[in-house]
Design a protein that fits this description.
Structural class: mainly beta
Radius of gyration: 21 Å
Strand order of the largest sheet: 5-21-18-19-17-20-6
Distance between the termini: 25 Å
Number of strands: 21
Oligomer: single chain
Strand content: 15-25%
Number of helices: 4
Order of helices and strands: EEEEEHEEEEEEEEEEEEEHEEHHE
């Protein structure tokens, strides 16, 4: 995917074709929550859907996803597993007629908010999903045992997955551990620092997020690889969800769109969404649990069966959720930013096989660099950020990059980060307002493992 967007960025689009899919309409309801564990890596074989795969993996022996598996529990989230460094010469090459067009700019257009639009903001009370099926009650059982206020343990604070998606142990939300290794002289570090500084996409070539209510109308989106290419497995199916009337995808060519289900527990993620008359189509779709890991949706030749997917499955090149790493409303302007940052870089810097938490890449023939998809960079902890004279917005970004780092998730026309469209437009503008400070931050980024 090109990322200025990968499937969504300033540049490119990720995509491993999807697992087999039916053609019957499917109403995705709140009761269909998927159990997503970061250690589940078995995937449905889709080796027949790509061309030029040098090492297709039979379904009967899917021990790992493209030789990329999650690190053991408790290990460094920034460190790829030992099995994640196969010979780069085995990279699968995407057929030329499936590649996405590169984005032309990392600078967002100053598009005014659309009248009547209701993009993601402070979440409203969540209603039922499209099928109005009740969710399974997950509250503790009341055993009727007497207790005094002194005996009752304090109520656990409920995690807000809408403002900070994914579990605390997700690669997106885990701080870099104190024993991590920073490789300042590594070729990957040298390569990234030689690129231009990151801009922030805020209106075009970014991820547009909408919150659906139980009262919103149902919309059916036909998902199929055939909406973009005639090669590979179509993995087609209809996805019926509730969607705000004014919802629309990113206006740039990648056309990313996320609709948060009325249940508040799932994200319906689409890539290459197009509307013709009253009909919608898309090329990729994944139903992503907001309390899961947000990664390992699709691999080079397979899809994780723990996710419901159509088309090419994962909507970003790295094989994971497009919600991961977005700069959200108020994070740069008010702070703090408590997660890793998603970035995309041009093909001339990309190379090798994907490393955790990536499980795939663009599989395009134009990679000419040394940075694998999924590589994490961060500002070393011995840098005193408060002494750099950064603006409040840039200091908040720098502190997030020191605590969590950034993760390469896509290919792009130029280096870029992503602010959630349209709600985080002010945050992106605040960072783009001083590119000399973005360049200073860029010069400190170092590979961390």
């Amino acid at each position: 995917m090109i990322a200025c967007a990968g499937m969504a960025a300033c540049g490119d689009f990720d995509n491993a074709p999807a697992a087999s899919g039916g053609s019957d309409p499917v109403v995705l309801d709140s009761g269909a929550a998927l159990d997503l564990g970061t250690t589940s890596v078995q995937q449905t074989d889709i080796s027949q859907t790509r061309t030029s795969l040098s090492k297709p993996t039979p379904a009967a022996s899917m021990d790992s996803i493209a030789s990329v598996s999650p690190p053991p529990t408790g290990s460094n989230p920034a460190s790829p597993p030992a099995a994640a460094s196969p010979d780069s010469g085995s990279d699968a090459i995407r057929s030329s007629n499936t590649s996405r067009g590169e984005r032309q700019s990392t600078r967002p257009a100053d598009d005014p908010p659309q009248a009547g639009a209701t993009p993601a903001g402070a979440p409203e009370t969540v209603g039922d999903s499209a099928s109005n099926q009740p969710d399974e009650d997950s509250s503790p059982v009341d055993r009727g045992e007497p207790s005094s206020p002194q005996q009752q343990p304090p109520a656990a604070q409920q995690h807000d997955y809408l403002s900070r998606p994914f579990a605390a142990d997700s690669p997106w939300n885990q701080p870099i551990p104190s024993n991590a290794t920073y490789r300042s002289s590594d070729p990957r570090t040298t390569s990234l620092r030689s690129s231009s500084p990151f801009g922030v996409n805020t209106s075009n070539w970014t991820i547009w997020v909408w919150h659906a209510k139980a009262t919103d109308p149902t919309v059916t989106i036909n998902v199929s690889v055939r909406h973009l290419t005639s090669s590979g497995n179509a993995n087609a199916g209809d996805v019926t969800i509730r969607m705000p009337v004014d919802a629309h995808p990113d206006p740039a060519n990648d056309s990313h769109m996320v609709v948060i289900d009325p249940d508040g527990k799932h994200a319906h993620e689409f890539w290459y969404v197009k509307k013709g008359g009253s009909s919608y189509t898309a090329v990729s779709y994944a139903k992503v649990p907001l309390d899961g890991s947000g990664v390992n949706i699709s691999g080079y030749a397979a899809h994780n069966p723990d996710y419901f997917t159509y088309g090419w499955g994962a909507t970003r090149a790295y094989g994971g959720s497009q919600l991961g790493g977005l700069i959200r409303k108020g994070e740069a302007t008010q702070g703090p930013i408590e997660h890793a940052i998603a970035v995309a870089i041009p093909a001339r810097y990309l190379g090798g096989r994907a490393v955790w938490p990536a499980t795939s890449d663009d599989q395009s023939s134009d990679y000419a660099g040394v940075i694998p998809m999924g590589t994490r960079f961060a500002i070393p902890p011995d840098i005193n950020l408060d002494s750099l004279g950064l603006s409040p917005a840039h200091l908040r970004l720098a502190k997030a990059l020191q605590k969590y780092g950034l993760i390469v998730v896509d290919k792009s026309g130029s280096p870029c980060m992503y602010a959630e469209g349209l709600e985080a437009q002010a945050d992106g503008h605040a960072l783009n307002a001083n590119m000399s400070q973005m360049a200073l931050i860029h010069s400190l980024l170092t590979v961390v493992e």
